[in-house]
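Please decode residue identities from the backbone states below.
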């Protein structure tokens, strides 16, 4: 009787494991695609709201891309960029990833924030 019960429990366990939904896949890892970052208005609403518009010509602008507030440039072709704001001065930002609709970056020693394309 104990053998029958053990075999039944084993069969049920295997059946449940094999019936697991295999259609869900892990999403592709997000990477830093620098070309997707430019000529878009990025905004975050977590904590202190921040926004950026990085024009492809190296200018930081207003949300419509027209009024210039400063400049930006990648540092040594890395994930770091320097922003030089006319009123706030120079700061280094680190980008973790950029997709078509989402950008994750932080300033110096701050926490990473997720920005969404507006």
């Amino acid at each position: 009787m104990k053998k029958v019960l053990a075999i039944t429990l084993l069969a049920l366990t295997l059946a449940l494991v094999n019936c697991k939904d295999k259609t869900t896949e892990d999403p592709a890892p997000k990477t830093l695609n620098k070309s997707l970052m430019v000529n878009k208005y990025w905004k975050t609403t977590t904590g202190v709201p921040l926004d950026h518009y990085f024009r492809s010509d190296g200018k930081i602008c207003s949300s419509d891309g027209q009024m210039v507030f400063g400049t930006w440039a990648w540092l040594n072709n890395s994930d770091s960029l320097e922003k030089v704001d006319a009123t706030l001065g120079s700061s280094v930002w680190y980008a973790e990833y950029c997709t078509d609709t989402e950008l994750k970056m932080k300033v110096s020693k701050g926490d990473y924030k997720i920005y969404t394309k507006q």
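Observation: The CA atoms of residues 16 and 44 lie 43 Å apart.
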